[in-house]
Amino acid sequence: MTVPSSSADRAVPDHVSGTALSLLCAVALKKALEEYVLPAFMRATGATVNVLLEPTGLLLQRIEAGTRPGIFVGTTGSLEASAVTDIFDLPSCKPVAKSGIGVAVPPEAHRPDIGSVDGLIGALTTARSVAYSRNGPSGIYFARLIRDLGIADQVNSRSTIVDQGPTAYALIDGRADIAIHQLSELMLVPEAAVIGPLPHPVQHYTEFSATLSRTALNDALASALFGFLSGPLAARAYRASGLQSP
Q1: Given this model, what pLDDT does residue 3 score?
Q2: Nearest to 227, CA basis, from 18, 44, 62
Q3: Which of 44, 92, 102, 211 has its CB 3.0 to 4.6 Å from that of 183, i.e. a possible disulfide?
Q4: Residue 175 gets which letter from DSSP?
């Protein structure tokens, strides 16, 4: 999908050019950043952005171990709950996107009706194996959801737990026939067939926010990228990659 640009997308200060910036970003934004946002920003500035895309928890571990990014994009509230609050300018924190949880099946597979909670229960309990994340926000929520629905034992007895990376890969290599993950992360595996979001009564959204480090507060490049991440091109890119406005 093409994300058109506009003059507003190219409104980057003239004095920002030819430098580099470090960005640590939650993997849920990977498709939008790699395919649209960062290429457009680097074309506009001539700058280099060194980006690391991982789950928020792993990014925080890196920061606690000494990594110092100019900008951090992770689940909203994660910095406030961490041991690294002194490194970032928390008042600069700005929501940029949110993601709902979706369901995918292998290519050419039967697509169960998940439009209702009963339909979702039927799909999950008749699946050969359901793949979901062990420690990401979608997996943590899904584990609680199946307990609340009373089907945890049935689903977990033959589930495929994915420690890292898109759960939809388990559809392609045959380990599972249903994958649960953030919609934007399911879309990282184009061979998988995303059949829709969880039904509205049991849907759960994860919001992602950008925050400047204290050392980057007066850095023109960091400020420009920070604005770009919440600008009109980025908003269109987020929508094209399965995310929503916060």
Answers
A1: 54
A2: 44
A3: 102
A4: S
Same domain, 190 and 222: no
> Looking at the DSSP assignment, which residues form a beta bridge with residue 196?
103
Residue 70 and residue 161 in one domain = no
Q: Kindly state the tokens that stand for 52.
A: 């690391």
- Decide: 49 and 21 in contact? Cβ < 8 Å: yes
Count of residues in the chain: 246
pLDDT tens-digit series, residues 185-210: 999 999 999 999 999 999 999 999 99
Full-model pTM: 0.87
246 C-beta neighbours (distance < 10 Å), count: 16
Burial of 153 (0-12, 13-18, 19+ CB in 10 A): exposed
Q: Which residue is associated with the tokens 């609050």?
A: 85
Q: Domain holding 49: CATH number?
A: 3.40.190.10
8 pLDDT above the threshold of 50: no
